[in-house]
């Protein structure tokens, strides 16, 4: 099917983009890469009155280090982040990106678009939550910053109001004693995950674990993050011990009912195995003392 | 620290259009700059197919899943069904038509053919451009990674093994990087839905206040859609035949469905021609220029160009050669015909058959006129075209029947 008619605005300034959304009076929609929005329009699941294309807005296409954070602007394509030198400083982002759809979608899809879309099974929202990223939003009353862990309110529901534009997201740059893990199980490469996990472990100079976090996705209506520092310390980061140790956390995190693709129990088994493996990997990397991506 | 600020997508101009407005888009398709005026909701896939007549880009699911519509946008593979054409202002698009030429295919196309990597061929354009993007931008990809990297396109005929082999072979053959698309050049693009779309051919564009008739006929740079060659032995002496060829009015009268309406001087003529094929009726208005008319060699060469109100366009470079033989005259016609827009949909083979029949009819008319000295009797309502198509189809069916019959 084809999209229903809509008014189209492609302003050059952020304030004009916000003004268009305000004028649309709830009927406006931002379009960045369109890789999630266009299918929805084509199926006529949404009929916005105005599409506000932010691709000509100056300043939104910056990918840059600001202090000890990496800032990714709203129109920065996923594929650019995948290959940019700058993003090597955020290894988890690099680990997760190849899992996002296919190359042909990442060439247009943006990092911020994925965060704003808030699909519960999407990879990048989980990365943002695991790393405690900060989202910069612009609305009619100016800009505000929201932490990723507070941004998600449910499936496809976020702190964004209809007249807001997500301007950029910033991720903390990894230090030398931080390790990461990322994995998911999907029915085929490029599909949304049945269950997935992002893991982060930080060690101190003596090699002791100072913080450990895991975020699960595809198993709830939003990415869910837990502090697992105690468990990692208790198991010494050993994978087979972690499988049992993580059992309670996993049980609590998986709260979707079963669907056509996987039962609730199957998702738990998947998540338990993935979480143990990726947390152990993150631990190994952190203790080894390099923030490298490779195994 | 480091900061890379890429400029805002080249040429992306601010716009505002109401839901019933159209948006002007300027972009490059296979090396040809085009200007389209489209409703904002028209996807790139539809713009390519319907407004530019480039039907090589296939459409399957229309929501990003199947990969049939994959094209290159600024050098990277993208789903043409997930982009509104208006978003591509200033962009450079390459479709399968730009990848290689019929007589000089891109190495990837060669390899797909060699390895039987296409069965029905519906997924082939998508696979070719996805593979091109991969080998061009990520040449270090390994054989083990190929299945995942090419999983963005679905083949319903399940020819994956051969597709992987074809891509792997091409990569191995070009370790220094695969050759660029080989068929990107300025050419005329006219859509099937006609009307608002247009091609800019800046070097050849005529000032708008001058009448179109002073324009030179500039043939597209690419391969012709069809090349026709017809040899006819006429039982009439050379002099008689040449008398027909030497008089442009009589000559035009011999062409089925054609009519000369105006003489513009300097060997330039205006006219119209009607062709009806099945449900499609085309009424061309156009011009023709006689480039060469040489009795010594018995040669006449004509460039012709016609445009249909529906946006179909045809251009042709026609050479007729008459030579005396013992039995009378040999008349040989060579034509390179360029079709764009709706008529290009016929497919090469059928369009070629129809053109060939037109020339055969033409030769028959020339024979009649040369023999009887009378202008050919033909109506301009183009009933002949209809008969022509029926005859063409009957011929083909007979041929197929014969093959089946084991002859
Ligand atoms: C076949 C297919 C497979 C896919 N597989 C995956 C997958 O495995 N994992 C995955 O994560 N995604 C997947 N996607 C979705 C897509 O590729 C995501 O990357 C992303 O959601 C799209 O980003 P975008 O820039 O294209 O957003 P758009 O489609 O432009 O926008 C998506 C939504 O976010 C809003 N939005 C976008 N940018 C902003 C902004 N700056 N401010 C405010 N609101 C904004 C839009 O209004 C819209 O509601 C898939 C898509 C397809 C078609
Ligand atoms: S038609 Fe575009 S991906 Fe299926
Ligand atoms: S060859 Fe038929 S779909 Fe791939």
From TrEMBL, chain A:
A Pfam match: CO_deh_flav_C
InterPro entries: CO_DH_flav_C, CO_DH_flav_C_dom_sf, Diverse_Substr_Oxidored, FAD-bd_PCMH, FAD-bd_PCMH-like_sf, FAD-bd_PCMH_sub1, FAD-bd_PCMH_sub2, Mopterin_DH_FAD-bd
Domain FAD-binding PCMH-type as annotated: residue spans: 1-176
Keywords: FAD, Flavoprotein, Oxidoreductase
GO MF term set: anaerobic carbon-monoxide dehydrogenase activity; FAD binding
The EC number(s) this enzyme carries: 1.2.7.4
Domain of life: Bacteria
Protein name per the record: Carbon-monoxide dehydrogenase medium subunit
UniProtKB/TrEMBL annotation, chain B:
MF (Gene Ontology): 2 iron, 2 sulfur cluster binding; anaerobic carbon-monoxide dehydrogenase activity; metal ion binding
InterPro entries the record matches: 2Fe-2S-bd, 2Fe-2S-bd_dom_sf, 2Fe-2S_ferredoxin-like_sf, 2Fe-2S_ferredoxin-type, 2Fe2S_fd_BS, Beta-grasp_dom_sf, CO_DH_gsu, Diverse_Oxidoreductases
Statement: the UniProt record of this protein carries the keyword Transmembrane: no
Name of this protein: Carbon-monoxide dehydrogenase small subunit
Cited Pfam families: COXG (PF06240), Fer2 (PF00111), Fer2_2 (PF01799)
Enzyme nomenclature, EC number: 1.2.7.4
Iron-sulfur among keywords: yes
Enzyme class of the recorded protein, top EC level: oxidoreductase
Keywords annotated in UniProt: 2Fe-2S, Iron, Iron-sulfur, Metal-binding, Oxidoreductase
Domain of life: Bacteria
Residue intervals of the 2Fe-2S ferredoxin-type domain: 23-99
């Amino acid at each position: 099917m084809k999209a229903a008619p809509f008014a189209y605005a492609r302003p050059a300034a952020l304030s004009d983009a916000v003004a268009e959304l305000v004028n649309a009076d709830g009927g406006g929609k931002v379009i960045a890469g369109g890789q999630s929005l266009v299918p929805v329009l084509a199926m006529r699941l949404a009929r916005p009155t105005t599409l506000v294309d932010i691709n000509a807005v100056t300043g939104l296409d910056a990918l840059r280090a600001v202090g000890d954070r990496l800032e990714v602007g709203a129109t920065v394509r996923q594929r650019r982040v995948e290959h940019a030198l700058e993003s090597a400083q955020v290894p988890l982002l690099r680990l997760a990106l190849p899992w996002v759809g296919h190359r042909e979608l990442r060439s247009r899809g943006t990092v911020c678009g994925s965060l704003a879309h808030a699909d519960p099974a999407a990879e990048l929202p989980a990365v943002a939550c695991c790393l405690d990223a900060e989202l910069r939003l612009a609305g009619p009353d100016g800009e505000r910053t929201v932490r990723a862990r507070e941004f998600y309110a449910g499936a496809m529901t976020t702190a964004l109001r209809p007249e807001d534009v997500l301007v950029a997201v910033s991720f903390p740059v990894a230090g030398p004693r931080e390790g990461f893990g990322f994995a998911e199980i999907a029915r085929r490469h490029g599909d949304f995950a049945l269950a997935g996990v992002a893991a982060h472990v930080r060690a101190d100079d003596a090699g002791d674990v100072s913080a450990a976090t895991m975020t699960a996705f595809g198993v709830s209506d939003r990415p869910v993050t837990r502090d697992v520092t105690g468990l990692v310390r208790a198991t010494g980061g050993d994978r087979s011990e972690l499988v049992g140790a993580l059992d309670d956390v996993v049980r609590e995190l998986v709260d979707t009912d079963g669907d056509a693709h996987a039962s609730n129990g199957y998702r738990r088994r998947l998540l338990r195995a993935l979480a143990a493996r990726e947390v152990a990997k993150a631990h190994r990397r952190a203790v080894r003392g390099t923030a490298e991506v490779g195994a | 620290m480091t900061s890379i600020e890429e400029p805002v997508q080249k040429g992306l101009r601010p716009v505002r259009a109401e839901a019933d407005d159209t948006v002007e888009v300027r972009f490059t398709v296979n090396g040809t700059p085009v200007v389209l005026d489209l409703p904002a909701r028209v996807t790139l896939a539809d713009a390519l197919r319907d407004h530019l007549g480039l039907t090589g880009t296939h459409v399957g699911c229309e929501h990003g899943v199947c990969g049939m519509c994959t094209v290159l946008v600024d050098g990277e593979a993208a789903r043409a069904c997930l982009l509104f054409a208006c978003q591509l202002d200033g962009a450079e698009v390459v479709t399968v038509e730009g990848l290689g030429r019929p007589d000089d295919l891109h190495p990837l196309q060669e390899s797909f053919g060699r390895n039987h990597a296409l069965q029905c061929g519906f997924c082939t354009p998508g696979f070719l451009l996805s593979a091109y993007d991969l080998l061009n931008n990520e040449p270090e990809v390994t054989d083990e990674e190929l299945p995942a990297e090419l999983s963005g396109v679905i083949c319903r005929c399940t020819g994956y093994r051969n597709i992987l082999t074809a891509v792997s072979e091409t990569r191995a053959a070009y370790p220094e990087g695969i050759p660029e698309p080989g068929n990107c050049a300025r050419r005329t693009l006219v859509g099937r839905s006609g009307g608002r779309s247009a091609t800019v051919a800046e070097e050849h564009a005529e000032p708008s206040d001058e009448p179109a008739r002073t324009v030179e006929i500039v043939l597209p740079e690419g391969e012709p859609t069809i090349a026709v060659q017809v040899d006819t032995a006429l039982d009439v002496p050379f002099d008689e035949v040449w008398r027909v060829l030497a008089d442009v009015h009589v000559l035009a009268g011999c062409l089925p469905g054609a009519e000369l309406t105006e003489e513009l001087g300097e060997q330039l003529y205006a006219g119209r021609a009607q062709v009806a094929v099945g449900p499609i009726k085309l009424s061309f208005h156009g011009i023709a220029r006689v480039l060469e008319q040489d009795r010594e060699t018995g040669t006449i060469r004509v460039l012709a160009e016609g445009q249909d109100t529906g946006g179909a366009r045809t251009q042709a470079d026609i050479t007729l050669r008459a030579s005396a033989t013992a039995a009378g005259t040999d008349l040989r016609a060579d034509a390179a015909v360029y079709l764009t827009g709706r008529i290009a949909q016929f497919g090469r083979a059928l369009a070629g058959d129809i053109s060939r029949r037109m020339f055969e009819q033409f030769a028959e008319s020339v024979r009649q006129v040369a023999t009887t000295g009378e202008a050919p009797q033909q109506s301009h309502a183009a009933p002949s075209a209809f008969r022509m198509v029926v005859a063409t189809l009957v011929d083909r069916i007979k041929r197929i029947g014969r093959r089946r019959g084991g002859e």
